[in-house]
Amino acid sequence: MRYGLKVNPGTWPEATQWAGIAEDAGFHSLWTGDNLRNSRDAAIAVHDGPTLLAAWAATTVDIQIGLLIANLAYRQPAPLAKQAVTLDHISGGRFELGIGSGLWPADHAMAGVPYWPGPERADRLAEFVGSVDRLLGGDTSDHSGAYYSYRDAAMSPGPVQDRIPLLVAANGPRALAVAATYGDAWVTFTGAATEEEFYQASVERADKLDQLCTDANRDPASVRRILLAYGSVNPWASPDALAQITERYQAIGFTEIVCYAPKPAERPIFDKAVGTLFP
C-alpha cells in the first residue's frame, strides 16, 4: 500500500512544514486541493492549489506532488494542461493531476457559474478529461465541444514524464466510465456516507470500474485505486485506525490511501502511526 498526505495549508510556513514532514517520513505523495474557498467557512484561509504546488515542486526533492482535485467550476482544459506541464517541469517529472466534476456549490458561486445538475457535471467531466488527455499527449488540434472549446493550442515544451498521470475522482457510474476510459487512477471519497455505507459502495464501484475497463479494452489492473480518507474514514481516529483502514480497503483492490493532514488534537496519533508505517 502506498500512502499520500493531503494538506490545505493556510500559510506558507504551514505548507513548508507539512511538505517536510511528508517527505522526511516517507510518504509516497503530497497533495493539495483546488478550492477558491473553504466550503463551510469562508474565514478559513485557502490558497490556490496550482500555485502552491509550484512552490512545493521547487522546494521538495523526491516526493510525488499532485492536485487532488482540479475543479471544473473554474478550470479550462487547455490552461490546466499547460499548468500541468509546467508543474511537471518544475518538479522534475513528479507531478500528478487529479480532476473532478466540481462538488461544492460554494466554489461555483465564487467562480460566478451556476451549480450544474449531476448529469451536466458528468458530461462536463467526460469532455474535460478527454480534452486534457489529448492535450497532454500532444494532440493540440482545435476542439469545439458542448461545454469547452480551444483553438491554436500549444503544448511546447512537452511533459518531462512520458505521461503525466491523470486521476479521475468518481463515485457515480458515468464518472467511473471516464476513469475507465482515460484515468491512470481512480479516486473515491466518502462524502456524507457512513464508513460501512462507503465500504459497501466501494466494493460495488470497484467491480463496476473493472467492468468498464474491460469494456474499454483496458486492463483493470492498469488503473490505480486511490482512497481519499476523510470524514467517516478517519485514519487518525485511533492508534490502529490507519492499519484497519489499510487492511479493509486493500482487500478490495485499493493500492493507495491519501490521508488529510491531522488536526492538532490528532497529531500524537499521526506521529505514532507514521512511525509504524515508515520505521
Automatic annotation (TrEMBL):
InterPro entries: Luciferase-like_dom (IPR011251), Luciferase-like_sf (IPR036661), SsuD_RutA_monooxygenase (IPR050172)
Swiss-Prot/TrEMBL keywords: Flavoprotein, FMN, Monooxygenase, Oxidoreductase
Pfam families xref list: Bac_luciferase (PF00296)
Top-level taxon of origin: Bacteria
Identification of the protein by name: LLM class flavin-dependent oxidoreductase
Entry-linked SUPFAM superfamilies: Bacterial luciferase-like (SSF51679)
Residue ranges of every copy of the Luciferase-like domain listed in the record: 11-230
Organism (species): Fodinicola feengrottensis
Gene3D superfamilies, per database record: Luciferase-like domain
